[in-house]
Recover the amino acids of this structure.
């Protein structure tokens, strides 16, 4: 009986880990030690809202474009230039839409920052 309970707990834990294992946006948030919980939640929500559009954009890639992205011999800048030249008008429109959303998200986030947070973040940027 005890083994059955233990096995059930292990199976439940494994299944819940697989089900809830999505993208962990909290790891992507920089300077989270300076931000409040509400600000972190805002950033996570913004990432989650943007992700379907980015996935839709990536799903439109041709085999040639996918090959360019996977090419390890190219630098990041070279990949970007090569991809840019192969984009269709629809892909360019999708890219511009994503860019506009990111810009709006940055504006919305900057409004939430206090003067102290801005000063801390500015000091960190200048250290780099």
């Amino acid at each position: 009986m005890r083994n059955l309970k233990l096995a059930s707990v292990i199976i439940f834990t494994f299944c819940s880990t697989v089900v809830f294992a999505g993208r962990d946006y909290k790891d992507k948030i920089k300077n989270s030690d300076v931000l409040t919980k509400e600000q972190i939640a805002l950033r996570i929500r913004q990432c989650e809202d943007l992700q379907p559009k980015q996935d839709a954009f990536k799903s439109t890639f041709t085999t040639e474009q996918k090959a360019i992205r996977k090419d390890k011999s190219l630098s990041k800048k070279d990949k970007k230039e090569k991809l840019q030249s192969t984009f269709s008008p629809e892909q360019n429109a999708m890219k511009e839409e994503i860019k506009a959303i990111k810009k709006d998200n940055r504006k919305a986030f900057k409004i939430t920052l206090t003067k102290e947070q801005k000063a801390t973040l500015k000091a960190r940027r200048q250290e780099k």
